[in-house]
Amino acid sequence: MKSLTAPILLAALFTATATQAHDPSLHKNKGEKPKCEAMENMDHSKMDPNDPVMQAMMKKCMDQLHEESDSAGHHGDSHQPEK
Amino acid sequence: MKTIRTLLFAAIAACAGLAAFIYSGSYPVGADVRHTAFTHWALETLRDRSIDRAAASIEVPALDDPELLLMGGPDYNDMCTGCHLKPGLEESDLSVGLYPAPPDLTEKAADPRRQFWVIKHGIKASGMPAWGPTHDDQRIWAMVAFLQKLPDLNAQQYQILTARDDDDAGDHH
């Protein structure tokens, strides 16, 4: 059970980022966006869902997704992580 | 009696010699002239003993908290990388030019109590500022939490954890 958490969250994350990655409106922001696409290329087998660094990256990327889908008007998206 | 007088005279002469040296202006104060081995040892030992003593009674909170990493990461990236570097940045004008040189904090993490104390109080006559007057303990602990993980982060992980997007840009200062 525990070992499935990371792959499931990651899968949700990547399907969502992939559709949004090339939207030019994302580059309007002054602040720097976390480059969450990079997580896709990391070695998933070494990702421990209990590692605080992993948890922090997940949280950052989930938060970013929600901001983006909110500002783009995509409400009720299916990428909400189940907590 | 005679030896006491000789010792007293020697002590006075030593003080006068020291004063003359200070006034003479012959001490090389430039940051590009390295300390002698003795001065180096004396200053490092003074610093380390002082920090050890002052930091000994500090209680370390739980640092394995993702929220702390997300709070400390952007602060570190904004305020500290010019001197202390980050994954993918091997040197900077400040890391090369400052003496004592700022340690590369991506290499290995010191004791969290030591880090907390140094960040809060700074180090005299070095480039390390005291961040305590302008940042509360919570924010300093968040940076310590981040520093404990920093040596294990690659450039991508670092970027994700430290990116400060618009939403939280406002709460800096």
By CATH, the architecture of chain B is named Orthogonal Bundle
Question: What is the number of E strands of chain B?
Answer: 0
The level of helicity of chain B is 55-70%
Model regions low in confidence, pLDDT < 50 over at least 5 residues of chain A? 18-30, 74-80
Beta strands of chain A, count: 0
Give start-end ranges of low-pLDDT stretches of chain B: 168-173
Alpha-beta classification of chain B: mainly alpha
- Overall geometry of chain B: elongated
User: Biggest chain pair contact, residues each?
Assistant: A-B, 22 and 21 residues
Q: Can you tell me the CATH topology of chain B?
A: Cytochrome Bc1 Complex, Chain D, domain 2
Whole-number total of structural domains of chain A: 1
Largest sheet of chain A: none
Number of helices of chain B: 9
The Rg value of chain A, from CA coordinates, equals 13 Å
Look at the structure and name the CATH superfamily of chain B: Cytochrome c-like domain
Radius of gyration of chain B: 21 Å
Q: How is the quaternary structure best described?
A: heterodimer
Q: N-to-C SSE series of chain B?
A: HHHHHHHHH
The main β sheet of chain B shows up as: none
| Outline type of chain A | elongated
